[in-house]
Design a protein that fits this description.
Layout (H helix, E strand, L loop, with lengths): L2 E5 L3 H15 L2 E5 L2 H10 L6 E5 L9 H7 L5 E5 L6 H4 L5 E6 L3 H17 L3 E5 L3 H13 L3 E5 L2 H10 L5 E5 L7 H9 L8 E6 L4 H10 L3 E4 L4 H26 L9 H18 L3 E8 L2 H8 L1 H18 L4 E7 L2 E7 L3 H17 L2 E3 L2 E3 L3 E6 L6 H17 L5 E3 L2
Parallel strand pairs: 1-2, 1-3, 3-4, 4-5, 6-7, 6-8, 8-9, 9-10, 16-17
Antiparallel strand pairs: 11-13, 11-16, 12-13, 14-15
Length: 416
C-alpha cells in the first residue's frame, strides 16, 4: 500500500488532508507535527514513504530545516505553506521538492491530492526530451526527474526516432524547434504519421519569438507549446495536463474494450485484436488456437437462484481463467455465459493440457455464498486450424463446443 507522510502542526489541516487522501486513494497516511516527530516516524518506517507533505511553519523548523532532513531519505516533497511569497531558496533547496501548496482552503487540498497522484503515477511514465543544447537537456531532465518521471534524451530528431523505436512505451515528448539533421517541425510531422495525439503527447519548446511558430506546430500535430525560459511550475503543470489527458484517453479505451461485468475484453475488441494477432502469426508461421468456453446449464442457475447469482457465476469464470491464462492468450467474454480464448504461438499439446486443467478446476470449484453452495461445470470447444480466418476458427470451435454439450457436457472437443 502507498504511504503518505504528513508533517503539519495544524491538527485540522493534517486531519483534513489525511481523510481526503484515504477517501480518494485508499493510501495510508502517517502524521506528525514537528521535525522531532518526523525523525521518529522516518526511522520507524525506514524512510519508506511515497510522498511527503511538509509544513514550512513548524515550531522547530523556522528556516525550512524539515526539508533538509526529509531530503536525506529521497522522498518526493510537497511543501505546505500559508504564505503566497514562498522563498526561492526554499523552492530550490532540494531536488526532491516537486511542488508547493498554499494552504488557503479546500481547493488547495484538492490540488495537493492531484500532485500526490501525479507523482505516484509518474513512476510508470516515460518521457523523451529532444534538444541540441546539452545544458537544456541536463537541466530539463533533472526537473522532470523531480516528478519521478523516467527521462530519455536525444540531441536531434533522428536520435529521437531511434529512441522511440527502442522504447515504444514513451508517452510524452518534449522537443526543440531548431536542431540539426531533423528539426522539431519535421520530427512532429513524422511522428504524427505513426502516433495519434491520444497515444503520444508532444510539447514543443522554442526560444523563437515569431508569433506563427506556436500555431505552425499545433497545426502539424503538437499538443502543446512552451516558450523557453519557462518556470518549474509551468513545466510541471503542462506535463501533468498532457499526461492526464493521455490517461483519460486510455481509461475511455479500456471502458470501450472491456466487459463491464468481468473486466475481460469484450466481443468487439476480441475480433479487432484477434484478427491482427492471427494475421501476424500467419506471417511468422506460428500456430494459434481458439477455444470457446460455455457454462453448463446456465439457464437453470438463473431460474433457480436468480440473475444476481448468475452474474456471480459469470464473474467466477473470469477469475478462474485469469488464474490459468497469463502468457500469450487473448481472453474475452463474447456475451452471456460464453467466453473465448485465442492462444497465440501455442503448442498444441500444452494448450490441450491447459484447457483440461481449466475444465477440472471448474468441476471441483465451489462458490460459497452462505446458504447457497454454487457449483457448475463448463464445456469447451477448440480449433487448431490457424490457417483459417478468425471467423472460421470460431465456427469450428463452436461446432466442437456443441459436440461437447451433446456428449454430456463438462467435456472438451477438438478438431482432429
Amino acid at each position: 500500500m502507498k504511504k503518505i507522510l504528513i508533517i503539519e502542526d495544524s491538527k485540522s489541516i493534517a486531519s483534513t488532508l489525511s481523510l481526503m487522501i484515504k477517501e480518494q486513494f485508499g493510501y495510508k497516511t502517517v502524521l506528525g507535527s514537528s521535525v522531532k516527530e518526523c525523525a521518529k516516524i522516518l526511522l520507524e518506517h525506514k524512510g519508506r514513504f511515497d510522498v511527503a507533505l511538509l509544513d514550512l511553519g513548524l515550531p522547530d523548523s523556522t528556516h525550512g530545516e524539515i526539508v533538509d532532513f526529509v531530503t536525506k531519505f529521497n522522498i518526493p516533497i510537497i511543501i505546505l505553506t500559508a504564505s503566497t511569497l514562498i522563498e526561492d531558496d526554499i523552492k530550490n533547496r532540494s531536488l526532491n521538492i516537486v511542488d508547493y501548496v498554499i494552504k488557503d482552503g479546500i481547493y488547495s487540498f484538492k490540488y495537493a491530492l492531484s500532485v500526490i497522484q501525479r507523482v505516484i503515477n509518474n513512476k510508470a511514465v516515460k518521457v523523451l526530451v529532444v534538444d541540441d543544447s546539452k545544458t537544456f537537456l541536463e537541466t530539463t531532465k533533472k526537473l522532470m526527474e523531480r516528478y519521478r518521471l523516467t527521462v530519455f534524451t536525444a540531441k536531434n530528431g533522428k536520435e529521437a526516432l531511434d529512441v522511440l523505436n527502442e522504447h515504444q512505451d514513451i508517452k510524452l515528448l518534449l522537443t526543440d524547434y531548431y536542431m540539426p539533421i531533423i528539426d522539431g517541425l519535421e520530427l512532429v510531422r513524422t511522428l504524427r504519421k505513426k502516433y495519434n495525439k491520444d497515444e503520444l503527447s508532444i510539447i514543443v519548446t522554442s526560444a523563437s519569438k515569431e508569433k506563427k511558430t506556436a500555431s505552425k506546430f499545433l497545426k502539424y500535430g503538437a499538443n502543446d507549446f512552451l516558450y523557453k525560459g519557462f518556470t518549474q511550475e509551468e513545466l510541471f503543470v503542462r506535463i501533468s495536463a498532457n499526461i492526464e489527458l493521455l490517461e483519460l484517453f486510455e481509461q475511455l479505451r479500456q471502458k470501450a474494450n472491456t466487459d463491464y461485468l468481468t473486466n475481460l475484453y469484450n466481443r468487439r475488441y476480441f475480433f479487432e485484436q484477434g484478427t491482427k494477432i492471427l494475421e501476424s502469426s500467419k506471417r511468422k508461421n506460428q500456430p494459434c488456437a481458439v477455444a470457446l468456453i460455455d457454462i453448463d446449464k446456465f439457464k437453470m442457475i438463473n431460474d433457480e437462484y436468480g440473475h444476481d447469482i448468475g452474474d456471480i457465476a459469470i464473474k467466477e469464470v473470469s477469475i478462474i481463467l485469469n488464474r490459468f491464462l497469463y502468457n500469450h492468450e487473448l481472453v474475452a467474454r463474447l456475451g452471456g455465459e460464453e467466453f473465448c480464448i485465442l492462444f497465440d504461438n501455442c503448442d498444441e499439446k500444452e494448450t490441450m493440457i491447459k484447457l483440461e486443467l481449466i475444465r477440472e478446476e471448474f468441476e471441483k470449484n465451489v462458490i460459497d455464498l452462505g446458504v447457497i453452495k454454487l457449483k457448475f461445470t463448463v464445456s469447451i470447444g477448440c480449433s487448431f486450424n490457424s490457417n483459417s480466418s478468425l471467423d472460421k476458427m470460431l465456427q469450428e470451435a463452436d461446432k466442437n463446443l456443441y459436440s461437447a454439450k451433446d456428449s454430456g457436457r463438462n467435456q472438451i472437443r477438438y478438431r482432429k
